[in-house]
Amino acid sequence: MLTRADNANIDIPALMADMGARAKAASAPLAFATPEQKNAALHAMADAIVASEDAILSANEIDMEAGRASGLAGAFLDRLQLDPDRVKAMADGIRAIAELDDPVGSIIAQWDRPSGLHIERVRTPLGVIGVIYESRPNVTADAGALCLKAGNAVILRGGSDSVNSSRAIHACLLDGLQAADLPADAIQLVPVTDRKAVGEMLKGLGGTVDVIVPRGGRSLVERVQTDARVPVFAHLEGLCHVYVDASADIHMACDLVVNSKMRRTGICGAAETLLVDRAAAPAMLTPILDALDAAGCSVRGDKDVVAAWPKATPATETDWTTEYLDTIISVALVDGVGGAIDHIGRYSSNHTEAIVAEDRAAVDRFMTEIDSAILLHNASTQFADGGEFGMGAEIGIATGKMHARGPVGVEQLTSFKYLVRGSGQIRP
Amino acid sequence: MLTRADNANIDIPALMADMGARAKAASAPLAFATPEQKNAALHAMADAIVASEDAILSANEIDMEAGRASGLAGAFLDRLQLDPDRVKAMADGIRAIAELDDPVGSIIAQWDRPSGLHIERVRTPLGVIGVIYESRPNVTADAGALCLKAGNAVILRGGSDSVNSSRAIHACLLDGLQAADLPADAIQLVPVTDRKAVGEMLKGLGGTVDVIVPRGGRSLVERVQTDARVPVFAHLEGLCHVYVDASADIHMACDLVVNSKMRRTGICGAAETLLVDRAAAPAMLTPILDALDAAGCSVRGDKDVVAAWPKATPATETDWTTEYLDTIISVALVDGVGGAIDHIGRYSSNHTEAIVAEDRAAVDRFMTEIDSAILLHNASTQFADGGEFGMGAEIGIATGKMHARGPVGVEQLTSFKYLVRGSGQIRP
Known about the structure:
Two copies of one chain form a homodimer. Chain A is of the alpha/beta class. Chain A is built from 14 helices and 16 strands. In chain A, β4, α7 (163-179) and β5 (187-189) form a beta-alpha-beta unit. The longest helix of chain A is centred in the N-terminal third of the chain and has 20 residues, at 12-31. β13 of chain A pairs parallel with β16 of chain B.
């Protein structure tokens, strides 16, 4: 068991710089490890997790006891807790990653030039990825496996509350690497809980870290985005909108709004604001809000909404910028698709927005003019997910516009290089 | 004419923040300007440049006089100087950019999901690009046009020595924007020469700048890479290698080495180091070095090279890390392709490397194991250029692994978003 005292007298900057150098060194051979070798490691990791169920659960119990003793909240303890089903799900998740197409070396584009040169753009790993996460111990397995599949070395920094669980899982990942003769430094777990280690990672460990992925709540992501001196794949929040156009099918609108908001309220793809076309309001507002109400959702409306549907409480300006992650929705009337675009442009976090409409021109305008990572037509915002997109596992969803955007799966954890084949061409 | 005194009493941070906000505001409508509208603006810009030749040359003469008076070096003055041919070349360059395919809205990938959802990944502009450059006034036209073609707003910050030339060219770009009814803030030129303006741009102007592109010498790029708090597309240097394998055709090897080094020595794709397979040395080293010598190139060799070809001077450790940009080459013998990979891994700037070989296994290993932006087989390193790749104009070459790598053309100045089309799908 790791205690705070273990951090005493450790030179954190030196320790972290060494981890960075090791990761960088491991990333070179990983970049051209064969798909078979990487998949053998992944399957061996899954086997080791299944075989180590008892050890993982015992380690987790130590974390749980410490968490209860320090008065952690119930939701936090639930994320921390492992059980045999969750251990099996981790192993299954790793096997699913093994089944994905190997992105490394795949040809993204190729063309011939008048000079006779043949040019290929092929995928390469990014290099070294730093993953900073909180209480969920399964991130250790997911992130480790996903980075390996894409040929990257990874430095994992889990929450201090799950440190024993993460260590037990990490030991299984190391077993898998060893079984496939891959370097142990391909997947490193920061061995100290001192938060200085995070600060070092955000500075890039002497240029060895290519990208940082934070997995956790708003305060973690905010700190990472503010302090990181290296690129970050993340979203701060998912302030997702559903716009119901006057041309919408009313039944579809009710179903999509309720599903977008209520299927799971705690995920980043959950809708937080409903925008209803003023022209649709007389016919559609009440049935949609009744459906939300019947599903257990509270409504905060602008003054027109409150006037039309008195159960709504008045929304304030902060409601338009609040990611509730709860059974609450803010609702405004807008002047057609142009009004929806304006509202979204002002308040959105550029994660995911949906339009419910049958009018092609309104749909085209919504899809063209809004610059969010994911735009949906006649589909629930809850589809904003790498698995639903067919990308397999995802390490998160990015709302930045550089490199990765939307679900960050194995393909988004790669870069590319150009291979140019000639027959002696010199440039005139 | 702008003088240093013009900078007095200007609140640079406020000025630059305002430019950032204007660029951001302009970027929204630019993102969905039609190809026809953008091309109309580009052709009108080219027309304005041709029509304003006298004004541009007069402004340039002011810069040239100031440059001569302050004792600027001849090479610097040559880059600064405009003449009727160079003015025409600027206009032609803009027209060539107009002819490129419009990247915005193009579908990068699309697929169907078992849920019935159809997913498209489509190109979008990046947003706001900051370009920081030195004495070449033509960058004003090239960079302004390229950013516009990709639907981005741009903030241009040219060198203080070319400020009058850049202003005259920028006026033509504004004419073009106005003729096509596009916002003037789409292409802004920083109006002050105070270097504090660069510092503000590197901080990102309050989150409005999405990427910075430095165009200039090593010290500029180094400052930008060190100080920028936003992503940068750049290469610090092009320390390009040519490796001649024992399986190479000797005549091809001579031609490719001489062309890679000597066609133009001052560009980033020029070869700086020649690596010769130890097994090839007895037959090939002397003819290759004789060919370089005949072309006017000095050779700095490791001890084996000096022993075999006494005209070579001994290379020191710093030669392996020096980008000469001159008629000098460093030469080492290596143990086959593995030795070449090791040398390149240690010393390369990850820009461009070439292998001359007929042995397929050696070529595959070189292409697979080296992680540089561009790898060439049996072709000159001088092909490392967006135009030669068929990308049209380029804003530079990037050696980073995030987002853009290799030549940065109009396509690399875009991001993407996902458009998901359904028929009422809710997520179970």
